[in-house]
Design brief:
binds molybdenum atom; binds the ligand Nc1nc2c(c(=O)[nH]1)N[C@H]1C(S)=C(S)[C@@H](COP(=O)(O)O)O[C@H]1N2; alpha+beta; 7-stranded mixed β-sheet
Length: 320
């Protein structure tokens, strides 16, 4: 999650980019002397094709509650599906779509267990038969960009209720699929896999917290975390773990991927908070994808009123 604002890019780095581009031209020239086959192969590496348009099945009978929807302008389907963080596939936001194109998401199950009365493995087809709702939420990445996304899904509480948490359960741990055959990001991603995340149980059962099965009325595109991912709109985007295969109720705060990778930069709570700097950049404003001027970041990403007393007594300055 290393980002640079354009005004922080040094001219030396820009020169590097030019040298790099010249080298590409030089390699291309050299290829003219090679065989047609090799030329074609290397040409494809140097000029990756644009991602194919995403086509996923429609989700039927979506209900559209009047609450849970911001009136702000939606980001387009193209924006939402071509600017992604999904380190298992690539650390480049614009490359994830193409790298995840052939990701296999059927059959797919989520195992729900731990401190529960009735552990259960849910099949994705069963979860898609739950009543599906549209939730139009702001989505704010800790890197300083944001979008407005019309998610489809259902409250996480629905599956938690079904397994009947025991009294000792206080947290919920989530895990993403890790299949090194299909997910070939470089070791430079710098995070341990599988990707893991967690919530406090009261955050997990909050009505704003959903398991999302799609967006724009269609099943989840691979690059956005097919076939099912978490959405917690008042927290930084990295809490919203993708392509979930396992959920466990626990009595201890579960480990979380970005906290393990950089504990001084990413905490467990990670509530959106314009008053708490990331150690390397301010969080007071954000770049809404598609807009030219930065807009102010809202406390709890604009969801403070709906959270009621979730963080009563907590020192929000230390909540990063
Ligand atoms: N498994 C997994 N989940 C993940 C990530 C990831 O790299 N792997 N990236 C996170 C981050 S940093 C963000 S901002 C969002 C991005 O979601 P989007 O691509 O749908 O916008 O996914 C989050 N969930
Ligand atoms: Mo993010």
């Amino acid at each position: 999650m290393i980002i640079k604002k354009s005004n922080e890019i040094k001219s030396s780095e820009i020169t590097d980019e030019k040298t790099y581009l010249n080298r590409r031209n030089f390699i291309r020239a050299g290829l003219l002397a090679g065989t047609t086959l090799a030329t074609a192969g290397v040409y494809r590496v140097l000029n990756p094709p644009p991602p194919k348009p995403v086509i996923t099945a429609e989700i039927q009978n979506i209900i559209k509650p009047t609450d849970f929807r911001t009136e702000e302008k939606l980001n387009t389907f193209e924006e939402i599906t071509n600017y992604n963080n999904f380190y298992e596939f690539s650390t480049s936001k614009t490359a994830v779509a193409r790298k995840a194109e052939d990701f296999i998401t059927r059959p797919w199950t989520i195992e729900v267990g731990g401190l529960v009365q009735k552990p259960k493995t849910f099949d994705i087809e069963e979860l898609l038969r739950f009543e599906q709702e549209e939730r139009i939420y702001r989505f704010r990445c800790v890197e300083g960009w944001s979008m407005v996304i019309p998610w489809i899904g259902f409250p996480l509480k629905k599956i938690l209720d079904a397994v009947e948490p025991l009294g000792a359960a206080r947290y919920v741990a989530f895990e993403t699929l890790y299949d090194s055959e299909q997910m070939q990001s470089s070791f430079l991603a710098g995070i341990d896999l599988p990707y893991v995340e967690g919530l406090r149980l009261d955050e997990a059962v909050h009505p704003l917290t959903i398991l999302a099965t799609g967006l724009y009325g269609k099943q989840m595109p691979n690059q956005n975390g097919a076939p099912i991912r978490l959405i917690v709109p008042w927290k930084y985007g990295f809490k919203s773990i993708k392509s979930i295969v396992k959920i466990s109720l626990t009595d201890k705060e579960p480990p979380t991927t970005w906290n393990i990778a950089a504990p001084s930069e990413y905490g467990f709570y990670s509530n959106v908070n314009p008053n708490v700097r990331h150690p390397r950049w301010s969080q007071t404003t954000e770049n809404r994808i598609g807009e030219y001027t930065r807009r102010p970041t809202l406390m709890f990403n604009g969801y403070a009123e709906q959270l009621e007393n979730l963080y009563g007594g907590m020192d929000l300055k230390r909540d990063f």
